[in-house]
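INFO worker-7 received task bundle
INFO bundle size: 2
INFO processing item 0
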Amino acid sequence: MSNYMELKRKTIAKVIAAAFVFNLVVMGAGAWIAYQEAPPIPEQVVGPDGETVVAGEDIRDGKKAFQRNGLMNHGSILGNGAYYGADYTADSLELKTQHMRTYYAEERYGTEYESLSTAEQAAVNDDVKQDLSGEYTGGNIEYSAAELYAHEQVRQEYVERYHEGSHERGVPEGMIDSEADARQFADFAMWTAWFSHTDRPGGEHSYTNDWPYEPAAGNDATGAAMTWSVIAMVLLVAAAGGGIWLYQSVRLPEPSADDLSVPEPGDVSIFPSQRAALRFIPVAAGLFLAQVLLGGLLAHFYIERAGFFGIEEIFGVHILQLLPFAMAKTWHIDLGILWIAATWLGAGLFLPPLLTGHEPKRQSTYIDVLLGAIVVVTVGGLGGIWLGSHGYFGDLWWLFGNEGLEYLEVGKVWQFGLLVGFGLWAVLSIRGLKPLLDREPVFGLAHMILYAGGSIALLFTAGFFFTPETNIAVTEFWRWWVVHMWVEGAFEFFIVAIVGLTLVSMNLLSRRSAEKAVMLQALLVMSTGVIGVSHHYWWVGMPDMWVPIGSVFSTLELLPLVFILYEALGQYRAMSETGGFPYKLPFMFIIASGIWNFVGAGVLGFFINLPLINYYEHGTYLTVGHAHAAMFGAFGFLALGMVTYMLQLAIKPERWDESWLRAAFWCWNVGLVLMVFVSVLPVGFLQLEAVFTGSYAAGRSLAFYNQPIVQTLFWARLPGDTLIILGTAIYAADLIRKRFVLRASEDDPTVEDMAVAEGVMSDD
């Protein structure tokens, strides 16, 4: 009797459908709760004499100023955004407590706070905490005299810092173009500080679950953060055992080198549509090169806040004024998304003829149209960001210019253009895969590719559910649907589907076998990654119900990444068994993607997503390490592996030279290791210690970044960044070189022209 379960593809498909519905129900209910429980924007904030200090409209206009001027890519709000500047919530809360101490010291003792005795300081501290404690019961927010004084001081500070400019902080002059807008931005920041220390009605903790850590305001980690961190670790051990049992119990096909009939590159014909799909590659490479160059500049900004190796002293112009950090960071993030997406779109259109031997009429023309549309949206979006931030679109800045939210910087019109691009890609993929789609069931491999691509587009629509008028907590709820569910859901799904398709095209797996493996991986990813987005809701003004939900599902996100790594290593083992395997370099990229996915998204992601760690770590350099290892290491390397495979098939076999690509591969990997482990993570751990021993604001302060040891670690990033830039330059140069040795495409291709299509089409 067999010890293995033989799961049928149809059974897995039903479970995936059930998991999908369950995810929608949970997150749909969460969306309703988000609107109900968001921190209130009062009609007005009043002083002790009843005079209006801030109107609700000022807070809303302050949020608009925050987005319009790109402040989320300079600093952060509620811990989300860039780490170069202050976190505005923590900064305004710290300034509020400091100025309240100053007020009470002067009022009670007639002197400065620092001059008071220890007992007198303790009395003042108690007065401040007493003012900031208590719950919101509705109506206007009522300030004490000390709070009113503090609010006015913070307004003045923010006008000086963000309107007049502060080069020592890396803030260009006129970052916010008017004094009135800067005052309203201060009102918005102070409102987020207010709901970070004010308890929910009937609750024991503030709207942000007492984040940020600020002892002076009485903010400290909740008991739930500790409890659910322990539960999460117990669950991980239990789930790991269950996952191993499942993997051992379900008989899944393994890639095998036995009796391989791997098609040699020269045995595969190239169709016109594949030549058209290859044109995505140099466009993506140009975006990639621009991205890494900007990344190097951003890293250097942490050392010279307004300069670049002293050049400004020669020319008399601060680079910060020409290219502010916020603008460079905005372009850096968007270029990263765009080059990876463009490469994947090209790969998704290159593979169908390989598997079907089918060339729809005018397919290459339509692919050229799609590429042209993507170029227009890219140029329009990136240009619109600059124009919008300089006021060229007036009140339409968020439609045509810079929406100003991290990862969703481009205006809504350009976001819609990207969505249309995804739709066109889906149509072209359906045309190319039609022979397979017609023959296979709805859970077949070709369908899986469409589902993966479709889910990327579907989740992107969440970015249209808010405007600059929307409450920041609700805005963050929807923004993380796009950002996190892409990365932990749709992108992971796309990875396993595209790798499965590639294995089939190499004859390492039968189509039926690949379908079963891809579906099981998709089930694991979907069962953990979608609801796992909720760890982003712990401190942004959402209710504390997300703490247990986010802890459990974020912990379990590690499991599918372990299995993806296990699969990748199994594939590598099979490939290594045969010395004549012609696609070793593409496979090296796929293996690297699996390893970095495990390290970046898995190990580092698990560590920073424990609630108790995340409370102190949220928005520090540890997140930078996680993001770079996961985004470039996992998704970037997969894209580059697909490029290598496409090029190897498309270039004349006798002219194939992989030496430059191999050099680029090692530059990228070694550079990423140096960047993450020698510089970024050490800074992150020092930052974590600074928060533990002081406050969150202290860990994000200019004083922390200017410490000699931190500055030394920033300089230590230079070799890693240089290697990554060098690898990208070699890659771009190699693409230019290879452009002249591409094979001619078949004018009238048939199934017989494809070495693998016949086998795939008959594999039912």
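INFO item 0 finished
INFO processing item 1
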Amino acid sequence: MKTYTIGFLLTLFCLTGCSELDQVPEATATKDAVFSSEKGLELYTASFYDNLPSASEIHKGDAMADYSVRIQVPDFLREGAYGPRQSTGWSWTALRNINYFIANNTNPSIPVDVRKHYNGMARFFRAWFYFDKVVRFGDVPWINKPLDVSDGDLFGGRAPRTMVMDSVLADLNYACENIRTTNDNTRSVITKYVVYGFKSRVCLFEGTFRKYQTSYTLMDTAEKWLTEAAGAADKVMKEGGFSLNEAGGSEKSYRQLFTSKTPIASEIMLATVVDPALSIFNDANWWWTSATYGARVSLNRTFVNTYLNIDGTPFTSRAGHEALPFMEEVKGRDKRLQQTIRVGNYTRINGGTAEPAPPVFSYTYTGYMPIKWSLDDTYFDGGSRNDNSICLMRYAEILLNYAEAKAELKTLTDADWAKTVGALRKRAGITGGFAAKPTAIDPYLQVHYFPEITDATLLEVRRERGIELVFEGFRFHDIIRWKRGELMEQIWNGFYVPALDKPLDLNEDGKNDVVFYKVRPATQLAGVTYINVAETINGVANPQRLKNDTSGELTWLTNIPRKWNEKYYLYPIPEADRLLNPALGQNPGW
């Protein structure tokens, strides 16, 4: 849609300019053609959609997260491997396009409400642009006009975070009040309720950031932002007309959201939509199933342990859970687990035939191999072939934004819990604990994730957010706003291996799948993957080990330190941009 709309816009510019070359300059004709009709405004604002994240950026968005085990440690987390020279993201081209539109959408022949609608669209995208910059860099220059190359403001300093975020909120409020579109069944257009949903995301981030990042001394202003977050989410919940997808029951309804060709309109609020007719696809299968193209991301066991039992009790309350083999630990759990990783009777289609598909150790290092975004037919595995839409916003996030904001404000009621976290857990097949907010703290969750949180309800809201939104690109930002960067140091652990040289049938289909060894046996079983977990391989430290040497959890890359530093809460200003404009300064520690 974006490609063709921009093409039409350029054609409109060209035709108008060419037909009036003997009357007015081409630039003037182009400007008049755009800003003198509603169609021109519509075509111009369509160009803003290019600023939304691509499908690949979304499905790869949690490649750097506390629960993501991958082929290599990200440079960002390795001492001395990342700095201003490697930093990216300081691009302002998109902003000039938006500001130019706002500055020139003044033609009095266009009705005021029409101009306000399209200005609302522009200001929404400006808010999206600036929120992304603030999350990444903190203080940034505030620019609300189209700058020329000779404009001195190009070389100004950075504005305080508070000023920029107040401006972001003003843009979002304007967009909420003036965008007229309330529904779009394609789920590819910005509507009033998408704006309210994004506002809830922005305000929750800023409110919790100010509350927990105490070095900024903005704690007194956190409540205002949390109240705005709850109010915006409540608006979507009461007026947006969305609901949780429950088609297919608890065993399918969750994953359908991520594998459906057409966005499931009941829950998906905004998506990047594929179009085979225009050869527009995404690369989800290629990235998530390839041992070479992707980062080979898998979940770690510490996080998998947070998935509840099906009765709503903590899995870690099971006696002996520490030594449960993979085949047993995945049974009787929150149904989202089996829709997020390969477990049990999961199958893939190969040449039209459904075949058992246990975790593949040429891809996964932990055994917890993701399936959330990938399609089940192996046809899609090689190249950008995927025809599933990728969601950018869905109703479940709004419910979680509401629940967390209210929990932080200490105003979350049992009724609030039931319609947010409770509804999500009920959709996941959990049979208890969804009617009233919890009062008992889960010690595992507290000790391993949030030791400073003593509110049982807030702990459970955070658990739910991690599980429901896993691999959707929220986790690292959540860690930043909660000031829990130390979570990035978590051991990269996998499932429990009971003994060396013991074949494991991971999906219990009667065929062995994997053997872990220190001395490779002279005779190997056909169809079985053999994994070396000896101390060294050819004199080099082996990155794949067992915690207790001859048994225990799998571990990966424990020999490469990941040490969180306070400076990592913000990215550095890129060195090349600071050389052009020394007034930008640098973020602390970089």
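INFO item 1 finished
INFO post-check item 1: Residues 1-29 have pLDDT under 50 and may be disordered.
INFO post-check item 1: Residues 51 and 94 are 7 Å apart (CA to CA).
INFO worker-7 idle
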